[in-house]
Amino acid sequence: MKKYFLFVIFLFLVACSNTSSSFVNISMPNFRPQVPIKIEPTDTEVTISLEPIIIEQNNNYSDYFENSVLKIRIEKEIELLKQNLEEQMITVAKLKGYKIVNSNSDYILKSLINVYIEERDVQKENSFMSGDFIKSNLGINFQGKISFIDAHNPQNSTNFSSNTKLDSLISLVYPIKNVDGVDMFKTTISTVPTQLNKGLERPAFEIDKSFLTFYKTTLNSLYSNLSKAIDMNKYTPKGSTEFNSFNENTSFEEAPPVKQNNTFENTPSKTENQNSNNQDRDGVIIFE
């Protein structure tokens, strides 16, 4: 009887240990620039308003993925992407000499982002102890379009675009809710975007990287192609014959990235800037 009691206690402790060790904490990606951005005041009087970014999702994945913690994390990342892009687009407009207003502006910036998520080769498998899980491959593709519109002549507009996609599909193995398996040893499914089930670290890393790549590509495209306010020939600076220009040597360029030994191996995401002819005309890359 004593041995049986000790055996039950042992199973309980193993189950508790299995539950507590089945998660790994992965912070959300940091979209913030690492170097403070200095904005010199200008007096061109050229105004611009920025409309909220429109996010469209065109998804093709299983119901299993719909209820997974990775899907929860991606939704949070989309929210952070939108929020930080809107903030930094204001910064870019200011760097170009525009005055930000909410209405009755000279120019308007409209942005549309399409996020396409596709899950392929979905296979449901089973473990006697831990229950059902899914094996599949995941792909993510971002397409962005920014329209710079003359508010006084709306048909006069310029479009900037940026695209990012993964080089290859990401292999996934994630648990799902099920009735099979031994309750004591079933894998507990996380619903917290920063608390992932073990085994999802690398997929999360690759997904984060694709979001950051698209974020940086979009801002660089906007900065490279958005005309300076002084070049719009609508107003000239007051009280001065010189434009308070941006110092490309010190203000908005990050220090060279420090090489780090990551837990996971980096594979660069594919990016495309369809406005390459005007790229880096000020010699500045917003985010490296």
Automatic annotation (TrEMBL):
Compositional bias (Polar residues): 259-278
Keywords, ordered alphabetically: Signal
Signal peptide: 1-22
Region (Disordered): 245-288
Entry superkingdom: Bacteria
Keyword Calcium carried by entry: no
Composition bias, Basic and acidic residues: 279-288
UniProt keyword annotation of Signal present: yes
Name recorded for this polypeptide: Lipoprotein
